Amino acid sequence: MLKAIQHNFRNRKAAFTLVESLIVLAIVSATLFLCVTLQPKKETGMVMATFKKRFSLLYQSERLLAQEKEQMLSMTFSKNALWTEHERLVLPEGYRVRGEEVVKISASGFVSPKTILFIDDIRKKIFRLVILFGGGDYYFE
């Protein structure tokens, strides 16, 4: 009898049964469904957050460069980009500047006060960059 059981196990082929195959297929399809539906959506808010960080770095480096060179520098906001003497920072998609604005940075690092209006064409909202007088503080609203 023991030989018959051992012989039966040797001859049995290792394969998935129909039920096991259906379970595996259900798990794979559920995983794919979740991956597709839970993908992060590309939003202008995330792009604007990146713009704010890049602006902050560029703004501080321009202030330090003006102090180092001991000369007045300017940052020009055109319709779709921010221009400095050395770099161009493109505005996020869907945003534009209302008119051309120039921010002057003195040799001491002080900045002329200015409010730059960004228009969001997608959401139809106005977004402001307010640069305060003096030490170069600014905020977005």
From TrEMBL:
<protein>
    <submittedName>
        <fullName>Type II secretion system GspH family protein</fullName>
    </submittedName>
</protein>
<dbReference type="Pfam" id="PF07963">
    <property type="entry name" value="N_methyl"/>
</dbReference>
<keyword id="KW-0472">Membrane</keyword>
<dbReference type="InterPro" id="IPR012902">
    <property type="entry name" value="N_methyl_site"/>
</dbReference>
<keyword id="KW-1133">Transmembrane helix</keyword>
<keyword id="KW-0178">Competence</keyword>
<feature type="transmembrane region" description="Helical">
    <location>
        <begin position="15"/>
        <end position="38"/>
    </location>
</feature>
<keyword id="KW-0812">Transmembrane</keyword>
